[in-house]
Amino acid sequence: MATQGRIQAMRAAVAALVVWAAGASGLVGVGAAHAEVAAADPIDVAMRQCLARRDRSSPAGQIQCMGEAQQQWQAVMDGAYQRLLKDAPADAKRGWQDSQRRWLTWRKDEVHLLKAVYDTTRGTSYAMSSADLQLQPVRDRALALRGAADRYAPPPAAVPVAATSGAQGGSSAAQGGARPNGKPANASRDPAVRRVRPCEQDAACEHALFDLNRYYQKLRRKMPAHSAATLVRAQRAWVGFRDATAPLVGEDGRVDLIGARIATMKRLSETAGNK
Questions:
Q1: pLDDT tens, position by position, 21-69
Q2: What's the predicted TM-score (pTM) here?
Q3: Which phi-psi region, left, alpha or beta, contains residue 123 (left: φ > 0; alpha: ψ -120 to 50)?
Q4: Separation of alpha carbons 249 and 119, rounded Å
Q5: Which residues form the Lysozyme inhibitor LprI-like N-terminal domain (predicted)?
Q6: Which of 18, 28, 29, 170 has its CB surrounded by the most CB atoms within 10 Å?
Q7: CA–CA separation, 23 vs 33, rounded Å?
Q8: How many angstroms separate the CA atoms of 191 and 247, rounded?
Q9: Residue ranges per structural domain of the chain
């Protein structure tokens, strides 16, 4: 039952990502979808406001809004990564360094894949869709690194208070021993690097890979023959990123990574060849 629940959750997440991504074909749809995903995040709010501006209503203006948001998320990602290198334990630091190297390699290859796919299309809406597909992975990575950096951040230093009474001393000690998340400062952390089963031993992962391969093959069939190697390289680089990241995020996190990739492959497979 638990495995079935994970599979259903993954597919619901993919559906949500596809709906979110579909908003890129409309002028203000992207901003509205972003607001639903993370309404409180200042970068998403600023992008929504930018997309709604009259002087940014053209496709070029909409793409500019997404480009500005991507730059801001890139800054968040870079800052969070530096915090991770500073605060994470050694095993986690090595893991995130490898994950980040793999992510950067994947993104370089993915840019070539996006160009190959969108070269088979015509129309300004596809240019907007391409800009959105470049923004979303940066946003996802920034959120992942920021969350990890927050987990490893040292607790704030306790404020020394003179023990004028036993009650006050006990109270200040209790406050000093608490972390912002409500856990004691000496509480054990979740393991920095997890042992994950091979995907074929995890039903949710196996189901997700089945769906991913279906859309991958659909895209491969629709791509020009000379672009086949570009698709293979991008997918191989993504697999390297996934495998390097899985021990850091666990099996559920691995399914989430695959779910995001399914949404991208589905979208590209439905886009390739449209004139």
A1: 444 333 333 333 333 444 579 999 999 999 999 999 999 999 999 999 9
A2: 0.77
A3: left
A4: 35
A5: 60-145, 211-251
A6: 29
A7: 7
A8: 10
A9: 2-152+194-271
